[in-house]
Give the backbone structure.
Amino acid sequence: MLLLFLACTSDACRLLCADVAVSISGCLLEWGATWEDFDVSTQNAFGNRCRAEWDSERTELEPRQLDAATGECADAQQSLGSMSCDELRALYFDP
């Protein structure tokens, strides 16, 4: 059971969900936005929804697709640290 827990917590895409929620939280005031603009009530709810969507999506992927997707999440997680609020806003609000 512990191994399953560790596997879930080290999933790059699940970790990315948490990191994106933290980054968005740091930008909300600058954007004049709230969590309701993301159709959630809190930072935690955003992360939970993201993780639930990923958990659902990953069940549809073949092993090689899953490896590619988690690699993309790991790359995105690294890029997220250097993103400005303007760059992050462009991902969510700008067409």
User: Anything to note?
Assistant: The helical segments are 2-9, 12-31, 43-58, 63-80, 85-92. Confidence is low (pLDDT under 50) at residues 1-8. Residues 14 and 51 are 5 Å apart (CA to CA). The first helix runs from residue 2 to 9.
